[in-house]
Amino acid sequence: MNTSFSIEDFIYDFSTKCNKVQVKSFSKNETITSYIQKRNQLCILVSGTADLVRYDLNGNRTIVQHFSKNSLFGEVFYNITINNELLVEARSNCEVLFYIYDETFQKCKNNCKFHQNLSEKLPKLILNKVTELNTRIELLTKRSIRDKLLEYFSLISTRNLNTTFELPLSLTDLADYLSIDRSAMMRELKLLKDDGVIEKSGNIIKLNRN
Question: 3-state class of 65 per DSSP?
């Protein structure tokens, strides 16, 4: 019995076999969704990149999460208890699948086979999301700017299976994502380069492992 799970196959089935799914396209910098509306949406990024961004009452902006292809997001993962606004913004042209999570527990009018299996598939997707959130927590618990940068570089290197990689975020966005001061981050990047820990050319990083 084949128990492997392909998220690409799941997304294709989800978008073509369930009539309760919407797939929409967005341009770079366009707002994809706002969590303040509390629609209990489950979203999957089919293509492109996006950020979950928080704006506080003073207008300060923080990148809470960065999303790439196949990432899950949506109000279903956040219980909003504060007035800070959470938006998902497109960082590039992208395509997004939208689904109201509450529909999972309602019988499909067409009695489609896919919807019958949906409750079995979703936990695997949500487990992937939990793993992603735990990784983010580990990253933010690093005490120093250097440790945060090295942990982030190691994470991207592992995902790309290569010690040389392109940063998926601009340096300004990276500072927001790591919750650190950009000027302090730039100084630390220079020190890492001077110490031979990394090589840097624009947004290309080479991680020198000892």
Answer: strand
CA dihedral for 79, 76, 54, 84, sign (positive or negative): negative
**Tokens found for residue 41:** 């949406």
Cα(91)–Cα(49) distance, integer angstroms: 5
C-alpha closest to that of 91 among 172, 8, 204, 168: 168
User: In DSSP terms, which residues pair with 164 in a beta bridge?
Assistant: 206
Report in angstroms the alpha-carbon separations of 156 from 20, 46, 47, 91, 150.
35, 20, 18, 18, 10
pLDDT digits (tens, 9 = 90+) for 6-61: 777 777 777 777 777 889 999 999 999 988 777 788 899 999 999 999 887 777 78
Q: Are 17 and 99 in contact (CB under 8 A)?
A: no
Q: What is the DSSP letter of 54?
A: E
Using alpha carbons only, what angle is made at residue 73 by residues 29 and 76, rounded to the nearest 5 degrees?
A: 130
Nearest to 177 by CA among 145, 210, 206: 145
Range 107-110, long-range pairs (CB < 8 A, 24+ positions): 108/18, 108/19, 108/20, 110/19
As a dihedral over the C-alpha atoms of residue 146, residue 149, residue 150, residue 154, rounded to 10 degrees, the angle is 170
CA–CA distance, 145 with 180 (Å, rounded to integer): 7
